[in-house]
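Exercise 7. Given the components listed, write out the predicted structure of the assembled complex. Treat all entries as one system.
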Amino acid sequence: MYPETNNAHAHDLQMDLVTASNEVIPIFGKRASKYSLWIRFSNGHKFKDGEEFAKLIVPVNGDSAKLGPCRLLSEPNIDGYAGRITFIDDFFDFDNLLSNHKIVKLQSEFLNLPMVLAHKDNITREFKDYTSNLNYDCNVYKNLFDKLDLEYQGEPEDVKKLVQRAIIDSEGKTFLRFIDENLQKLEKIVKNFSKEEHERHGFYLRKQLWNIIMCSAFMARTNLKPRGYSGDSEMMRMIYANEYEGFSTFSKLLNKHPLNQPAAQAVRNRRIIVAGKLNEIKNSRQYHADGKCRVLSVACGPAFELKDIFVSPDDCDAFHFTLLDQDKSALLEASVLVDQIEKSLGRALETKYLNESVRTMLVTSDLHEKWGRFDFIYSMGLFDYLTPPVAAAVLKKLYQLLAPGGEMVIGNYHVSNSNRYYMEYWLDWVLYYRSDSEFKALLGDAPGAHMDVTFDDTGVQMFLDVKKNRANA
Amino acid sequence: MEQSLRLTVKPQWDEIENARIEVGAYLQSQGLMRDAVHSLTMVISELIENGIKYGSFTGPEDAIAVDIHRNGDTTTVEVINPLNIKDKAARNHLTKLDKTIQWIRGYQDPFEAYVEKLKEVSRRPLKDEESGLGLVRIAYEGKSILDFFVSEEGSLNVSAVSHFRGDNHEKD
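Answer.
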């Protein structure tokens, strides 16, 4: 670098331009915009507006990037710059190049285009017709509902709500039935597909229906996964709320439809089932002789079920809760909920928060000494994401953490989930499904374990209920 | 009826090819079609490669264990390597592994993860030699569901579960 005295040149970098005849022209350059550089010639060279160069050589992090071809846009200014350099074929992003040392082409999104376009090649004709008709029909419905929304948008707020409610209860129901019928058709078409065929056809359906899917806040979230995984606390909140949320009648209807399904009802049911189990334990008083019932919630998320468990000040004296989750923001939400419960009941809850991944917690061999043993362990919405080797290892570890006489309830969606294709194709939400026997087999023959598999009312949510003999430490 | 194979692989690059040959022969003997054998041997190679890269091998007896279980149409591959969990680099690797696997599995079609990863690779820093494509290839080309855990013994167990039908069922 040459010494610089002009402040306007403080960020200049020494670079080279290479002409078509391979002459190397030393220059100084700095960012002008994302896709252009201010340049000045260090040896008094002069080039006409529009002059083309074979290459621009930029120093990057001790290395050099050879980019080109490029062109001079003559714009002499008072700081001594001759003009801007922009590229001719590939447009490189100078922000990424100079700050992050990454070579990013504006057109890089197109690199994979042939591969993405070819991904539709193995889509069956029947499925293409199905998706095309579905897309057409959904758009017809959307236009109709949007048109109706426009008709009454000038009405007072109360009137608007009543009108929209009437539309939802009349034509809205027809639309929801239309979606139901199309889900039945979908199942008929794809039920014999292989895993790979499901994946490919699911991708195709979402590409075709993307604009429709994005109208539903719930579907948008399951597809976009802003926290990097399915089933985050906001999705859970939406499932529990089970409301017509959205900016239009159409989006409200499309938001409500998946929330009305058995798979979503199962989420609401399991929350009640866990609260009921703990209520039974509290009433049995079997743990109270030597203190509180120690409870561990694994992959607790925002732990909304605490609202159903702690309903009176007495409940606060009955339990000690340990909440474990890998997502710090979910634990924070759980702690806010605990604060709210404490305020409303006027009693402190004994709660401990553990920010751990179940996949890495297993490494601690004496975990029961570190965390203690638990009288009741439950986990909902975790095992649906664990493959058998991991699920078996986690389940065995949890069993070790169970106190003699304790009980463990683990949820997993059953392989017969009637909403499986809806979840996979529309919501991009994939679970690891199990049969009863596969679920039981995960624990193997753990000493002193008595296992039972039960279901919620929908038959979608399966529970592995494990009781540990009092004699087994 | 469950069938299984266990291999012990020394943490050396040229051992990967030997493992590929042995695994390939075993999978063929199980009646899997050539494409399935090809996919699964790729999965195993990638996982062993990761095991060599990120494992902690302090003594001559330290090695990578490869377990393959076949149960019906389901094939489970487990690649287990010793790990020094107290090492910061190993912990960082686990955090990255956890995040990457969840990210890949967030897509119904691993093709989407593959396309995204290719875009990312095309934007990687000039001196970055790690593409991060291996795990995505396992999911997409290897048609496998990835997962992992760290065992009480401090070993990293990375598994890939796939569903390949035998030669009588595989589609053209």
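Discussion: The longest strand of chain A covers residues 402-413. The two ends of chain A are 71 Å apart (CA to CA).
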